[in-house]
Design a protein that fits this description.
The structure is a homodimer of 501-residue chains. With 501 residues, chain A is mostly helical. Chain A has 20 helices and three strands. Chain A is globular. Chains A, B: It is an enzyme of class 3 (hydrolase).
């Protein structure tokens, strides 16, 4: 009789699944950063086949049997990491096994079709054109949510959320967001009053090659390991690849040097998390990052907490002046700090500053729950969007292009994703505060371009944990308390009202 | 009862296998052209898993059953292309199903291990260091050859050859090569006497960016579709990717502008073949290229027949002077023609000219058959190499680094591959002759930079056929006769002795 344990069989199967997922990661990066247009159909075939094989390998009946046997007979003898690994396996399996493959495929096709229509509908400001395809996506997403909710014993929205934010709960998020929503308008008013007139930015043009050289230098300063990663260009910046081969992308605007640099530092935060994941568990679920909010916390900690600080800009300003400035003005620390901390209510989420960003997310969180439950119809979505933007940010939405058509998420079937952005911002503030409390030299270190102490703390308290604990456990262990909106609010006041950091 | 035919099931399975193979193609390209060193282990895992899944999907018992049923019950009702597709499926299946997966895996590991030792052994000129690992590779390759030969009913060498050159036969190759070997020394002597003193090449340096711009321009001239492909850099130039997304690579020597350009045009020949394969059969075996000798014929036709000709160089010389020359000398057609047709017996195959190249291949073909049969021991290999180089080319081999250690092939388990280079050169000469007979304007067209008529002929007579016929059938239909060494010999005399083309 074969004596291989059920858990060992699971490890072998999940290693294969990990390799398949990693291959998809590289092919997705290539699609965005390298692939010529003509390759689209072949690539779609490659990705669909890899995803379908992964789904099959994960949902074969033997996997459920192995999970049952390992949990029943073997879990007690496993170490902490292996037990956490087994839990992560069960989570992945639950999400895949809850749905039959016809539903998965129908949803996938509906999302692809809707996304294509959405691209034109957004360009032409024509919400009516995409309403039908979006209704189909929403119906199928609701079916997925309801099916999973019955299997998991939770609400439909929480069942969707769980795919992005393991153990997340809409009730907990709503409580934190409601708290934020109360205080944000006051912080925004105070920030607008405190920031003074708009600074005069440096004069371009800024050649892309020189922006890239500066970006590479600052990535290295921040600790990015180019032996295990690359920087390339793509239309929409992102962080992809695999932990020992992290691919980040950006785009360069030759008339504005500030955007790409901070975008790269944002993606560098994601990349440092990946590069710092536990090497001993590369192929296994427990070796991977926690959910999306923790991933976003790492990029926002790097960008918002560390790199937009006056401390870091003290270090970066002369380097930026040297590599991009050509002797022009606007490269002093104070001008850069004022540019990088400018607050202005606007229509577009991805262009929003740190103070107004949560309002964009809170609006989407409220609307997507109402859409899912049926309390809001698609016909009423554009109006609800306008009302929400007026109430939360005091801005008037002139059209749907810059309103409910601006983000790809819903049109691509991603409901339950938006809250992770603001959960990430709050987590970032709380982790950075704890890091500075533990290592008070961190602001001075950043002012000297030394990221070592900050990165060392993050490696120990976040990156090296992989998924061996939950996001909530990680945060509580690292900061002494669960997620607390107060820390984020205090950060906003210190930076944007006191203009102290 | 499910009425899906066995052949339709095979088509669906082979489409999946095609997608997996294409994914491997992109990941292999990325490994060589993009991947940072640190990504090697993760990539090895991705590729091993994809290959292992492919092997499993191809050798599941159902595939053999479907093949039997389709051949028995359905073949008569299929059209020509579908019948050819079914034959190609059977061929792929035969190669995979002949071997048990333990042998495949042992061979794969032995090759990886041997290749690693070989890299150092070559650098240190230490054949003894790699003799043990090479013996293991050879033993396992022999086991594979014998096992397949029993399944296929052919000689062990032919069983290996068949993986690179479907329907190839060592007896037929030996006859052609022996014929060549008789006449080559005389052609070489006459060529050396005819070529005159070495020309003075243009003076560098030649910045890589300008070489690249020239390469892109000439690729476009030759018909490469950048909507469906890319040009990048890698240590060892190659052509990879997939038909609608062909990735070719080169490397730039800033002190010599001639090498990279002709290397790119060589790879462009491979790429044009891929881009010209029948679009209706993308995912199926019949839609893929014929064996390696036909593939090599397309690169050598482009490089040797078309682009090293005086006609093409008449067109290219002023463009090269303009894009690389900086007003210097050596950019006239005649100097470039003399540089690009220079003959000199040497030690290294990959640096060899068109006249001496076949001798390198004939030596390897003779030695690898003797190694496989056991007539030659590894201990005697270095000496046999020296003897062969002296007899065939009159050169003295000073060490093993530039002798039997120079090529990766045997150390990586590729026995039966070498003859395809010279079969390709002969096929190229024969196809080009037929193209010019059919379209006499081709040399004048090339002298105007118009590749349309040549490419049109190749598209119709080679590329668009995919694998719907055998290589021998393609050649006979396109040129009116089977492979004929006489055409290649006549080409060598016309170019290198008469110096007429």
């Amino acid at each position: 009789m074969d004596s291989t344990s059920a858990y060992d069989r699971l490890k072998a199967r999940f290693a294969r699944l990990g390799h398949l997922g990693d291959a998809v990661g590289v092919l997705d990066w290539d699609l965005a950063a390298m692939m010529p247009e003509g390759g689209a159909e072949a690539r779609a075939g490659q990705l669909a086949t890899l995803r379908s094989i992964s789904h099959d390998l994960l949902t074969l009946p033997e996997v459920g049997d192995w999970l049952d046997a390992a949990e029943r007979d073997e879990a007690a003898t496993l170490g902490d990491w292996d037990r956490a690994n087994l839990r992560a396996m069960r989570r992945e399996w639950r999400h895949a096994a809850a749905l039959d493959s016809d539903l998965v495929e129908a949803h996938s096709h509906a999302c692809s079709a809707c996304e294509m229509v959405w691209r034109r509908a957004r360009a032409e400001d024509d919400f009516a054109a995409v309403r039908g395809p979006l209704a189909t996506v929403l119906d199928l997403t609701r079916e997925i949510a309801v099916t999973k909710s019955q299997a998991f014993g939770c609400s439909p929205y929480d069942a969707l959320l769980d795919a992005y934010e393991p153990e997340g709960s809409q009730a907990a998020i709503a409580a934190v967001f409601d708290d934020l929503a109360v205080d944000l308008p006051g912080i925004l008013d105070d920030a607008l009053a405190a920031q003074g007139p708009a600074p005069i930015p440096p004069n371009g043009p800024f050649p892309a090659a020189r922006q890239r050289a500066l970006a590479v230098r600052l990535m290295e300063t921040a600790g990015f390991d180019f032996h295990r990663g690359r920087l390339d260009t793509s239309l929409h910046p992102f962080c992809g690849g695999v932990p020992d081969d992290v691919r980040i992308t950006t785009r360069y605007d030759e008339s504005d040097a500030t955007g790409a640099i901070m975008g790269v530092l944002h993606e560098t935060g994601h990349a440092l998390y990946e590069q710092g994941l536990p090497a001993d568990w590369r192929d296994q679920p427990v070796g991977r990052a926690l959910g999306m909010s923790v991933h976003e916390s790492q990029s926002l900690l790097m960008e918002m907490q560390a790199c937009r600080s006056r401390a870091f800009l003290t270090y970066a300003a002369p380097i930026m002046a040297d590599m991009l400035g050509d002797g022009g003005s606007g490269w002093d620390t104070e001008t850069l700090y004022r540019l990088y901390t400018r607050v202005e209510p606007g229509l577009i989420r991805v262009d929003a500053d740190e103070v107004t960003y949560p309002a964009h997310v809170i609006l989407r969180f409220r609307l997507e729950r109402a859409l899912l439950s049926g309390d809001l119809t698609l016909g009423d979505l554009p109006g609800a969007w306008r009302d929400g933007m007026r109430d939360l940010l005091g801005v008037t939405v002139p059209d749907d292009r810059d309103g409910c058509l601006q983000d790809i998420h819903w049109y691509d079937g991603a409901i339950g994703y938006f809250p992770t952005y603001t959960l990430g911002a709050m987590t970032a503030a709380q982790l950075f505060q704890a890091a500075v409390q533990a290592v008070p030299s961190i602001p001075d270190d950043l002012a000297r371009g030394d990221f070592g102490p900050l990165l060392g703390w993050l490696r120990e308290h976040v990156h090296a944990l992989g998924s061996s604990v939950t996001a909530a456990e990680m945060l509580t262990r690292a900061t002494g308390k669960p997620l607390d909106a107060g820390v984020f609010k205090a950060h906003l006041r210190r930076r944007y009202v006191d203009r102290a950091v």
